[in-house]
């Protein structure tokens, strides 16, 4: 389908010049002032707006600013066309969100070239965005539903990718020998590259179930494969994996460079400290720890995105503060997940920006 | 903004980083640091972190791949003067034992005297 352009100029002559320049290639809409322009842009959603700056009623600056305020219009590229040719006008145009700037008097070949270029860029962004959407969609399907938690447990999960795709994941399932297995992991960096490595790690972890391999051996395989694939790229994976055997009431875990998680057992809360270092950098032996859990317990697993964000004053909660908060929630009989959700909501309402993927998993015996 | 300052004395290359060593800056810093390493003949590398205000996982990745590459060439690598926050970040990924960490020039010299550069 032909792409469409909205031409905005209060001078009839200018509109006709631009019409002659673009009517062959594009569907055109016209507006003679700022208010008409906004009406037209809302009604027709053109692919691009050619916008005069000095106009009656509402000027080009205000039209551009209004479009930026409306999420459905903010992505429509605007090219200013103006006789204001001072450097500061051009700077103001770009900082107000314009994609380009054409000076009057208009050179038709230049205007055509600039319009074509901006539309090509828009299409490229759209294509990349579709690819990343695809990755994010596949990735979301790899996460288990909290309702499908193995018998005897209940689960609550939080998953907030910083972009669309994420380097975090969690998983839980029952092994062929009837044990509960759960994992949380974090690939350094974020976006599509991290999502790719996350896919590898997740598949290898699941393969450990298919072959009924011990937890340590499963994590060792993940490390070996990642070292082979990404050594020296600067990427790595941290992971905390847990296995619970109801018959012996034993909890085994491997913590490979991951933020120590919390285990609530009866009235006590303890950390699941490191048993190995990060995966993907070098060969290492993978050790595990075991705890006997004779009564009901909860596991609270999370990634560093839960505490590595800055509030509007630039302060970061940090691990120690975060863990104190979560421990207190456990001790007062509340869900740390509810506390985490609440604190993130408050932080975002206060202007904090979550910079990394935020993921957490709470598993409790019923 | 992150800064990279380098100096070389008697085969010891010191790289002082300041600002954030994070997702937004790690790639650029890694390039600058690798170039400094390639351009300078050295037997020891000291990365001074005293001015680093934030280290995240991308920053950790940059440091580990730098140290891995340098140590394969036989370079003695030291991390100098991390702030308590940066030190905590290294502990939380269990890499505080991977890096040889020194708190002052005296400790640096002690390490360097052992390898006779």
Describe this structure in words.
Chain A is α/β, with parallel strands linked by helices and 366 residues long. Chain A contains 9 helices and 15 strands. In chain A, the strands form 3 sheets. A 5-stranded parallel beta sheet of chain A has the order 2-1-3-4-5, with helices on both faces. The radius of gyration of chain A is 28 Å and the shape is elongated. The relative contact order of chain A is 0.09. Chain B has 117 residues and is an alpha/beta fold. Chain B contains 4 helices and 5 strands; from the N terminus they run E-E-H-E-H-E-H-E-H. Chain B is globular and about 35 Å long. The interface between A and B is medium-sized, with 31 and 22 residues.
Share of helical residues of chain B: 40-55%
- Taking pLDDT < 50 over at least 5 consecutive residues as the criterion, the unreliable ranges of chain B are none
Report the mean per-residue pLDDT of chain B as an integer.
89
Distance between the termini of chain A: 57 Å
- Percentage beta strand of chain B: 25-35%
- Please summarize the sheet with the most strands of chain A: 5 strands, parallel
Number of strands of chain A: 15
Radius of gyration of chain A, in Å, reads: 28 Å
The best one-word shape of chain A is elongated
The arrangement of helices and strands of chain A along the chain is EHEHEHEHEHEEEHHEEEEEEHHE
Topology of chain B as a string of helices (H) and strands (E): EEHEHEHEH
What multimeric state do the chains show? heterodimer
Write the layout of secondary structure elements.
The complex is a heterodimer of chains A (366) and B (117).
Chain A: E1 4-8, H1 12-22, E2 27-31, H2 34-44, E3 48-52, H3 60-69, E4 78-82, H4 87-95, E5 100-103, H5 108-142, E6 153-160, E7 168-174, E8 180-187, H6 192-210, H7 215-230, E9 237-245, E10 250-256, E11 261-265, E12 268-272, E13 289-292, E14 297-302, H8 318-331, H9 336-349, E15 358-365
Parallel strand pairs in A: 1-2, 1-3, 3-4, 4-5
Antiparallel strand pairs in A: 6-15, 7-8, 8-9, 9-10, 10-13, 11-12, 11-14, 14-15
Helix pairs in contact in A: 1-5, 2-3, 5-6, 6-7, 8-9
Chain B: E1 3-9, E2 12-21, H1 26-39, E3 44-55, H2 57-72, E4 76-80, H3 84-92, E5 101-102, H4 105-115
């Amino acid at each position: 389908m032909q792409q469409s352009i909205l031409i905005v100029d209060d001078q009839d002559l200018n509109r006709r010049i631009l019409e002659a320049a673009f009517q062959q290639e594009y569907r055109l809409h016209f507006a003679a002032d700022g208010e008409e322009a906004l009406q037209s842009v809302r009604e027709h959603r053109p692919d691009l707006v050619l916008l005069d700056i000095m106009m009656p009623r509402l000027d080009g600056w205000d039209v551009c600013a209004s479009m930026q305020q409306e999420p459905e219009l903010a992505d429509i590229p605007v090219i200013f066309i103006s006789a204001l040719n001072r450097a500061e006008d051009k700077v103001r145009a770009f900082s107000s969100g314009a994609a380009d700037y054409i000076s009057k008097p208009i050179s038709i070949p230049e205007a055509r070239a600039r319009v074509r270029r901006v539309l090509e860029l828009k299409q490229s962004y759209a294509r990349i965005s579709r690819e990343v959407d695809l990755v994010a969609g596949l990735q979301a399907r790899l996460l288990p539903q909290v309702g499908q938690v193995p018998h005897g447990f209940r689960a609550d999960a939080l998953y907030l990718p910083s972009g669309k795709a994420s380097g975090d994941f969690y998983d839980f399932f029952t092994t062929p020998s009837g044990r509960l297995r759960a994992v949380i992991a974090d690939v350094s960096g974020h976006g599509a590259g991290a999502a790719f490595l996350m896919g590898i790690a997740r598949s290898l972890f699941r393969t450990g179930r298919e072959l009924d391999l011990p937890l340590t051996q499963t994590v060792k395989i993940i490390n070996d494969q990642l070292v082979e694939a990404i050594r020296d790229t600067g990427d790595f994976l941290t992971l905390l994996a847990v296995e619970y055997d109801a018959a012996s009431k034993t909890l085994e875990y491997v913590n490979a460079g991951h933020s120590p998680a919390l285990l609530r057992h009866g009235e006590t809360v303890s950390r699941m400290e490191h048993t190995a270092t990060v995966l993907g950098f070098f060969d290492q032996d993978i050790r595990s720890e075991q705890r006997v859990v004779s009564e009901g317990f909860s596991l609270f697993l999370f990634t560093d995105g839960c505490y590595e964000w800055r509030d509007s004053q630039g302060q970061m909660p940090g691990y120690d503060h975060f863990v104190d908060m979560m421990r207190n929630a456990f001790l007062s009989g509340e869900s740390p997940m509810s506390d985490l959700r609440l604190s993130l909501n408050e932080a975002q309402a206060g202007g904090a920006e979550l910079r990394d993927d935020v993921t957490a998993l709470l598993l409790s015996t019923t | 903004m992150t800064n990279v300052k380098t100096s070389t004395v008697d085969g010891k290359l010191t790289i002082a980083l300041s600002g954030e060593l994070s997702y937004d800056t790690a790639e650029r810093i890694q390039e600058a640091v690798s170039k400094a390493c390639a351009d300078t003949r050295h037997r020891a590398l000291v990365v001074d972190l005293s001015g680093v205000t934030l280290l995240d996982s991308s920053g950790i990745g940059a440091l580990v791949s730098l140290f891995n590459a340098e140590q394969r060439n036989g370079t003695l690598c030291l991390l100098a003067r991390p702030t308590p926050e940066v030190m905590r970040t290294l502990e939380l990924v269990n890499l505080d034992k991977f890096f040889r960490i020194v708190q002052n020039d005296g400790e640096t010299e002690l390490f360097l005297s052992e390898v006779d550069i």
